[in-house]
Design brief:
The radius of gyration is 21 Å and the shape is extended. It has seven helices and no strands. The chain has 136 residues and is mainly alpha-helical. The chain folds into two domains: 80 residues, no CATH class; 44 residues, no CATH class. The relative contact order is 0.06.
């Protein structure tokens, strides 16, 4: 059973499970599944300003805040208890191709040359974040 949890689930199992949760939650509890509205609920709970958008009974949506806390807690448990202790295996051709771009993958999935605070605050990264956010 633990081996089943450690590995990735096939798309034909995980996708329908997630997809069926949306209509089930809507039909059974008249709730929408998602974490996008959680920021609105947090702002309505915390902000003292009288902004009309935040003037609603956010206490009815506390399940959504618990849902997001469960996601964070579950991710932490999964990363510590179900994490793979072995180093990542990267194909030698990919290592060679990345070295041509001055990217040297280490033990982590995300190379430091791409995913770091210093790279985040460059003009190119800022432009990509703004354009990507606009496209989303």
């Amino acid at each position: 059973m633990l081996q089943l949890l450690r590995g990735p689930w096939p798309w034909w199992v995980a996708g329908p499970l997630i997809g069926l949760m949306v209509p089930a939650l809507l039909l059974l509890g008249n709730k929408t599944l998602g974490i996008s509205s959680t920021l609105r609920h947090l702002c309505a709970a915390v902000l003292p300003a009288r902004i009309p958008y935040f003037q609603y009974d956010w206490k009815k949506e506390t399940w959504n805040l618990i849902f997001v806390c469960g996601i964070l807690l579950g991710a932490g448990v999964a990363a510590t208890a179900l994490g793979n202790p072995n180093n990542m295996v990267i194909h030698p051709k990919l290592v060679t191709d990345l070295a041509a771009y001055n990217i040297h993958p280490a033990k982590a999935l995300a190379p430091v040359e791409i995913f770091s605070w210093s790279q985040l605050f460059t003009a190119r990264s800022f432009l990509m974040i703004v354009v990507g956010g606009f496209l989303v």
